[in-house]
């Protein structure tokens, strides 16, 4: 997966969502008896929560990832519609909402007992929006099209995305080379003709293509049929625990899912659509975008209810699966400040150490393993090349800072590496505010830089006879 964090630090994607907005309402309670009136559970409600649903959940996912989001939709002039507006405003979303007389804004209420859904009841309009409302949305799109990188269509079959509006939106977006991604509904995907990609699940793809997906051959045929029927740039089918299948340049690629305990799949499709649009807007290719979407979905299905995934959560999840790239462990000072705050909020014990680590040897690895044993997360401050020269002389370092950071980041015991340019790591330690500060035992009786910031300082013995200086001397002796 490409380094999304780095790309986001350089550019904030601008994404437009068009689709069916709704409110997902949750009534949380416990159940320990059956009603005397009928053979049903009695749920004692403890709390109520509300989140944006449908296209709103796509929006919430995009906001969580760090995108600049706009939305166009149709709602009713009712309490639910006013709540939708307020919730969008609180998220900082730029919204263009058409109020249509007589229309009921969708509200889905779920009764939850002991984290299990007991029942759901809906209040909504399902009929198509009026031609006047559709025209208002398209007029606004024409006015704002150049403001967006990508357009996401979230179709919950509640009437906003009519065939006529879909045709106009996709055609107009293509004129401006804007990719259109669609979470589809129904059995006729030709209404999405010209979109860059659709995100149907296996069941939806089978219904729309008329092909029962049973093996690799039938999967290819379904992908090809969907691509042809809707003139797609890329054909894609989500396969639940088996991952996501892509037909890209006539090649079928299956990106496997990432294993995690599943608590609730509500909204997972919204997360896939949002994360695909987010990654593509940053310039990632389709395969890296799908890998990113897989990870994001892996995060949200471990949560109850419609949920979102932040970049930090996705990166942490990827690291927990031992699938993160080495580069993801190398952080800037600004990035480590945010990470350190998140770790503190999670109650993690943070360990900090620092050094030049010019030629990595057994003594270094032993020292770092001991340092990691003192806490949950080990952050290593690495002297820059300029800093090493000032400390060790003009002939050092042997290995440049990028190579040293890369090698150190590959060690299992190290969670993050941050390069610093000062002679001491004091300013970096102020940013991290570690629980444990670790230095070598040669600092016994000496002042340890940063000990006034860390909660505790620990000294670690070195392995006898193992040092960078001795390694260099041995190499030079062998050459002579």
UniProtKB/TrEMBL annotation:
<protein>
    <recommendedName>
        <fullName>Bifunctional protein HldE</fullName>
        <ecNumber>2.7.1.167</ecNumber>
        <ecNumber>2.7.7.70</ecNumber>
    </recommendedName>
</protein>
<dbReference type="InterPro" id="IPR011914">
    <property type="entry name" value="RfaE_dom_II"/>
</dbReference>
<feature type="active site">
    <location>
        <position position="270"/>
    </location>
</feature>
<feature type="region of interest" description="Ribokinase">
    <location>
        <begin position="1"/>
        <end position="324"/>
    </location>
</feature>
<comment type="pathway">
    <text>Nucleotide-sugar biosynthesis; ADP-L-glycero-beta-D-manno-heptose biosynthesis; ADP-L-glycero-beta-D-manno-heptose from D-glycero-beta-D-manno-heptose 7-phosphate: step 3/4.</text>
</comment>
<comment type="function">
    <text>Catalyzes the ADP transfer from ATP to D-glycero-beta-D-manno-heptose 1-phosphate, yielding ADP-D-glycero-beta-D-manno-heptose.</text>
</comment>
<dbReference type="InterPro" id="IPR011611">
    <property type="entry name" value="PfkB_dom"/>
</dbReference>
<comment type="similarity">
    <text>In the C-terminal section; belongs to the cytidylyltransferase family.</text>
</comment>
<keyword id="KW-0808">Transferase</keyword>
<keyword id="KW-0418">Kinase</keyword>
<dbReference type="GO" id="GO:0033785">
    <property type="term" value="F:heptose 7-phosphate kinase activity"/>
</dbReference>
<dbReference type="GO" id="GO:0016773">
    <property type="term" value="F:phosphotransferase activity, alcohol group as acceptor"/>
</dbReference>
<dbReference type="Pfam" id="PF01467">
    <property type="entry name" value="CTP_transf_like"/>
</dbReference>
<keyword id="KW-0067">ATP-binding</keyword>
<dbReference type="InterPro" id="IPR011913">
    <property type="entry name" value="RfaE_dom_I"/>
</dbReference>
<dbReference type="Pfam" id="PF00294">
    <property type="entry name" value="PfkB"/>
</dbReference>
<feature type="domain" description="Cytidyltransferase-like">
    <location>
        <begin position="352"/>
        <end position="443"/>
    </location>
</feature>
<dbReference type="GO" id="GO:0005524">
    <property type="term" value="F:ATP binding"/>
</dbReference>
<feature type="region of interest" description="Cytidylyltransferase">
    <location>
        <begin position="352"/>
        <end position="480"/>
    </location>
</feature>
<keyword id="KW-0547">Nucleotide-binding</keyword>
<feature type="domain" description="Carbohydrate kinase PfkB">
    <location>
        <begin position="14"/>
        <end position="309"/>
    </location>
</feature>
<dbReference type="InterPro" id="IPR029056">
    <property type="entry name" value="Ribokinase-like"/>
</dbReference>
<comment type="similarity">
    <text>In the N-terminal section; belongs to the carbohydrate kinase PfkB family.</text>
</comment>
<dbReference type="InterPro" id="IPR004821">
    <property type="entry name" value="Cyt_trans-like"/>
</dbReference>
<dbReference type="GO" id="GO:0005829">
    <property type="term" value="C:cytosol"/>
</dbReference>
<comment type="subunit">
    <text>Homodimer.</text>
</comment>
<feature type="binding site">
    <location>
        <begin position="201"/>
        <end position="204"/>
    </location>
    <ligand>
        <name>ATP</name>
    </ligand>
</feature>
<dbReference type="InterPro" id="IPR014729">
    <property type="entry name" value="Rossmann-like_a/b/a_fold"/>
</dbReference>
<keyword id="KW-0119">Carbohydrate metabolism</keyword>
<comment type="pathway">
    <text>Nucleotide-sugar biosynthesis; ADP-L-glycero-beta-D-manno-heptose biosynthesis; ADP-L-glycero-beta-D-manno-heptose from D-glycero-beta-D-manno-heptose 7-phosphate: step 1/4.</text>
</comment>
<keyword id="KW-0548">Nucleotidyltransferase</keyword>
<dbReference type="GO" id="GO:0033786">
    <property type="term" value="F:heptose-1-phosphate adenylyltransferase activity"/>
</dbReference>
<keyword id="KW-0511">Multifunctional enzyme</keyword>
<dbReference type="InterPro" id="IPR023030">
    <property type="entry name" value="Bifunc_HldE"/>
</dbReference>
